[in-house]
Amino acid sequence: MASEVAEKERKILVAVDEGEESSYALSWCLSNIVNENSKDTLVLVYARPPRAVYSTLDGSGYLFSSDILASMEKYSHEVAECVLEKAHRICKDFNAIKVETKVEHGDPRDVICQVAEKLNVDLVVMGSHGYGLIKRAFLGSVSHHCAQNLKCPVLIVKKPKSNDGN
Amino acid sequence: MASEVAEKERKILVAVDEGEESSYALSWCLSNIVNENSKDTLVLVYARPPRAVYSTLDGSGYLFSSDILASMEKYSHEVAECVLEKAHRICKDFNAIKVETKVEHGDPRDVICQVAEKLNVDLVVMGSHGYGLIKRAFLGSVSHHCAQNLKCPVLIVKKPKSNDGN
């Protein structure tokens, strides 16, 4: 039975963000879940802040000038690029794994759950905080929300405090 | 790097109880995490109800007669045996895996966290409810507690409602 496992095509969603914990979760998943001979596909999901946060308040007026909006959008885009580049670098060490990326605007809780459901993934992997420090402050625990709401298995990985190198 | 994975000796704690969900979590773990060539050890952990629940109220008097206590103890022991026997049967389908069992009296939240810490396990696997229907009612979510308090990665597996056979 176990030999069949390697042949199974699984879709594993890994939630990535700016934090060290999500990088650790990704590495842990690659070391412990993904098999060299498997046909697993890793779907790296990054949730960009909802546009509404820095966009129009209503249809008539702008909260920020278009310049500020454009630079905020650019910054958010660069952060997303940076996060995904880092994640790809981590995946590179583990060859023979198919990697896809998804960047969506929105609350990470919704983004992760929606993508997981849409792609019918076999597993969702995330750091215990689920999302970066700043977002966590007003979002609460993303991992708790996902563990409660997702139908598929959820792996919550905590970065060890004592050992930064691993 | 991935080829090294199979050689790594990992200790994986799987929380088992009377519920179908814990059986499903165990099967999922065996199919998706454990590698045929790995030297993984599975530690099946079952938490028996704390003795205090049906034992003395204080040092001086008994709440139940010794007959009732003995039969309750016997029943609790038989349930534990039954749960572990079922878990072992599931593991049997996946040969070449080392299986250990731990039965401890206590709140499953404490039992799981204590055993995980004591044995320094690499991963804890559990159903999303973590423990049986009756206990869940007054214990709250065991999986949530464990995800918050454990230092190691926690895999929470939900049994699909639509597909009992898988």
TrEMBL record, chains A, B:
Gene3D superfamilies in the cross-refs: HUPs
Q: Which domain of life is it from?
A: Eukaryota
Transmembrane residues, as ranges?
Answer: none
InterPro entries attached to this UniProt entry: Rossmann-like_a/b/a_fold, Universal_stress_UspA, UspA
One Pfam family it belongs to: Usp
Cite the UspA domain residue spans from the record.
10-158
The UniProt entry, under PANTHER family, shows:
ADENINE NUCLEOTIDE ALPHA HYDROLASES-LIKE SUPERFAMILY PROTEIN, OS05G0357525 PROTEIN
In its UniProt entry, what is this protein called?
Uncharacterized protein isoform X2
Annotated source species: Coffea arabica (Arabian coffee)
